[in-house]
Amino acid sequence: MKFPFKTIVNSEDETRLIAEKFAEKIKSGDIIALSGNLGTGKTFFVKSIAQCFDISNVTSPTFAIVNTYNGKLKINHFDFYRIKKIEELYDIGFEEYLFNNSSITIIEWAEMFEEILPENIFRIEILHLENSKREIRISKK
Question: For 5-140, CATH number?
C-alpha cells in the first residue's frame, strides 16, 4: 500500500482487507485521523486494524471519549463526536496520548478538532457511496 491510497470497497470483507494492509504500515507513535459520516464504518475499520494486533474487544468510545486496548501494540481509540469544546480534550490529557511513542492513537471524527492534531499523521476518509459501497482514501501528511 502506497500513499495516497484510494479504493472502492463493496463489503465489510473488502474493508477488512484494506484495514489489514494498512495495519502493516503503522507502528507505535503513529496518529490516525478517521473521518466519515455516521454509519460509514469508522469503528469497523478500527476494529479491523486492532484485530491485526490481537485486540478483539473494540467498541466505539463515543461516550467514554477514549478507549485503550492492549495487544501486540497499544491502541488509544478516541471519538470526538460528543466533544463540544477543545478544552474537554485538554482536560483528559489528550496531548499526552498524541506524543506517546509507545502506542498508536486513532481518532474518529478527527475533523472536529483538526487544529489540535500534528501535521505528520495518517488521514483516512470513508465515504458512503451506495448500499454497502464505500470509498476509502488514505493519506500521510
Answer: 3.40.50.300
